[in-house]
Structures
1.
Amino acid sequence: MSTGSRSRISLANLSPARGSLHKQKRVGRGQGSNHGGTAGRGHNGQNSRSGAGIKPGFEGGQTPITKLFPKRGFVNQNERVWAPVNLERIQHWINLGRLSCSPANPITARELLLSGCVHDAHDGIKVLGDGAEFLTSKIYITPSRASKSAIRAIEDGGGQVVCKYYNPLALQDCVKGRTDRIAAAPTRRQDIMWYSKYQNRGFLSPDLLKKLDDAPFVEERWKLLSRQLGKWWKQEFDVEKKKK
């Protein structure tokens, strides 16, 4: 069929696709339609009554099968699944030319995912220290977590690692390369404590920010969050009352 014989699409010739529309089933309109009388509900029984709302899983009053089996454990709503990556794999990717980093452009979850170093970011990237003896390059990386052995190996090689907090939306923006939205700050006390410790190389650590004051990848917002979220460290909620 040539393109010249096709009619131009307009509101006048638009119609639903064949088979997408069906006639309404009209019940209770006589026996000639085969849906009259009882209207397809049958003569007696619970389902033939009006207002019969039988929930899924209801078994007529006997103990349903969902209650017969015991339950074990629970679902942790705060559990996170990290995407592990070893230093040996990062060095191999750098040797192949698939990864590159500098103080101005550190390695993030986006570079690791696009290069194929990891196949899924999950809830964040965690750098592990396996294969640290093969690390020969200066690595600048901002993962979500990093092990102590990985931090030691990277810093001994002249690089730097800063663990940054990512919520699901911030991690999605990082992977897609979006910079038009401000990344969320940690709100849970556990997260604030973890990212405020220098031993974890958290981006809220005052000692780390003081050490990396001239680093180009350090954001000014990190310093502001470090001052604001670090105030609760000085608050004393359990103050002993003075004895009279």
2.
Amino acid sequence: MSWTRVFVLSLLTTLLILTFSSVVGGAAVQGDSKAVDPNGAARQVFVPESDASNFFKRRSRRSTRYYELQAEQRVRLSVNERRREYSEEQRDEYDNYVKEERDEQNERSRETNEQLREYHYDGFQPRYYWFH
């Protein structure tokens, strides 16, 4: 029996809330004496099709000026110059690195060869035969 009372009370409170929410929503609308024309706002925003097409016919696309083309060309040239300088700098750094690595490798192999010659030298042949 108690669950029916809870159910009925919840239905009544829901009905009461819905009733007052619609009253509050209706009270939120301003009660001006003159009615607002919904098409009036659209008339103010949109123009007739003929006026719109005439607007675009009268205002054709503006051609770029010569000084604008020159400015764009200068920007492109400066970007290309910076890119070329950067790549040249990177290439020089890599070349220096490769040269140093090659010199170190040659030095290590030369030292190793000299050590082997000294180890294997028996004193019978002249030393200049060992240096090619």
